[in-house]
Write a structure and sequence with these properties.
The chain has five helices and no strands. By secondary structure, it is an all-alpha fold. The chain has one domain. Helix 2 runs antiparallel to helix 3.
Length: 121
């Protein structure tokens, strides 16, 4: 019985690591899109800032966990953090590079079982 619980526990951990990686990737891509949009025009940048401010206010009103508010505030503070060193690189490319740099590194992470698990459901 103990072995079954241990195996189930390990499977839950593996799935949660996969979900966490998916969420981190989704957040990075969202930041990239916001950064790319903000870089297109000053009006678009202002709209992105206002949208993020609204989301921060909503998260606080709904008593969201501090981590949620922190993530939104981080996205707002990094809205214009796009590398400018290559004039040939478009705003979208710079934003994608910034988002890729922000992705966490999951050493020794093998999501094969989690991918198989998601494809079954």
């Amino acid at each position: 019985m103990h072995q079954i619980v241990a195996l189930a526990d390990e499977e839950v951990r593996r799935v949660m690591r996969s979900v966490s990686a998916d969420v981190q990737a989704s957040l990075a891509l969202s930041r990239a899109m916001l950064q790319a949009l903000a870089a297109t025009t000053p009006a678009a940048g202002t709209a992105c800032e206002q949208a993020l401010e609204s989301e921060i206010a909503l998260a606080r009103r709904l008593a969201a966990p501090t981590r949620v508010v922190d993530l939104i505030e981080d996205a707002r503070s990094r809205l214009y953090d796009v590398p400018q060193d290559d004039p040939q690189m478009s705003a979208l490319e710079r934003a994608l590079h910034a988002a890729a740099a922000a992705l966490p590194d999951f050493e020794d992470f093998d999501d094969t079982p989690a991918v198989a698990f998601r494809s079954v459901g």
